[in-house]
Amino acid sequence: MSAVPNSTHDPALRSWVASANQPDTEFPIQNLPFAIFRRAGSPETYRGGIAIGDQILDLRALNLHGPFSGAAAEALGAAAEPSFNRLMALPDSVLTQLRAALSKLLHTDSPWAAKLHAELVPQSAAEFDLPARIGNYTDFYTSIHHALSVGRLFRPQNPLTPNYRWMPIAYHGRASSIIVSGQAFHRPVGQSLPAGAERPVFGPSQRLDYELEVGVFVGRGNALGAPIPITSAERHVFGLCLLNDWSARDLQSWEAQPLGPFLGKNFATTISPWIVTLEALAPFRAPLARAPDDLEMLAYLDSPAVRQYGAIDIELEVTLQTADMRARDMPAERLSSSNFRRAYWSIAQMLAHHTVGGCNLLPGDLLGSGTQSGPAPAEAGSLLELSVGGTKSLTLASGETRRFLADGDCVTLRAACSRDGYARIGFGSASAMVLPAHASAGQ
Ligand code: CA
Fold it and tell me: Which pTM value belongs to this model?
């Protein structure tokens, strides 16, 4: 079971890659996240890599050395490819063998150390691609604190819809516009209805926002018509990344009745390049964050394991650096932080609900957790909440104010897990800059 730590999580493990042993590294030998990379600006083929300290172990180069045998060798072959879909489709027991083999290979005692120094690429010299061909993207709404604070803005008398405590609410999103961290995008244009107006206006969004989310990459899929039971749902999860579900609030509020988000959400979704496996997160599991009187669940969404360790303790944060801050060499400023542990619905419940009617998930499908806000207003995972629906300005250290994002703003999501007795692990970052709307747009 992926929620039980094993020898690869031993905090005493050290790597022959010296930077992996620094106390402040996000990528100690206990993490071992996967990304698709190549040397920046090169014509090289993208391939799989493992983060270790400030380096990337090139898995295609490693595979040519033939260091493993059996299932681990088969998995390494899949991990060396330009996308992880084939790796993700492997049984979780095989992925566990690959992790154990990589952990031994990178350990200080490994006989491979001298040979493999040449197969390291500094992360600072790399560029990344999407980790998988993402066939489908589904965005959930698992933070009850986000649902409540947004609900209060639009339905003060009845902020939580009656279905919320019974099912993990979601909508089917757009997979083609998912982009990897570092890729800028243009402010979207579309229709919106100004307050008090009788007819819509067309032009660049005036209420562009971010959403602080966790992305979940589906591993092994299920056949059409064969739901994934809650008890084995986590065996279908490859790993987690950071996800910024950019949102044009003005477009969204005009178009979303009655069928939900469309252009307000489909112009860009940014994810971090590194996928932290569910197995790496085993030491950071936590009970489902619900009060004892709030635990009534339909059977297909309930299990002892979900109740005991359905949640994952992941500290999340959002920072903003405006164009002015960049010009003045000012660092990015933290806007808020929250924790994925507080999600009302767990990952296993997301998968069980998604498939209960027979829907098939595919290796490389991506699920968004929904904006992760905490109970305090300062822990909000979007500007919509921090600015109370755009009615209150935030004042930044630069003296600038924001209700929503301006052109040139760069938003960065980060995440890390820490617990006494275990090595701290990080997720890297998901970062992107807002470019002005295309010049021809809105004319
Ligand atoms: Ca979202």
Answer: 0.97
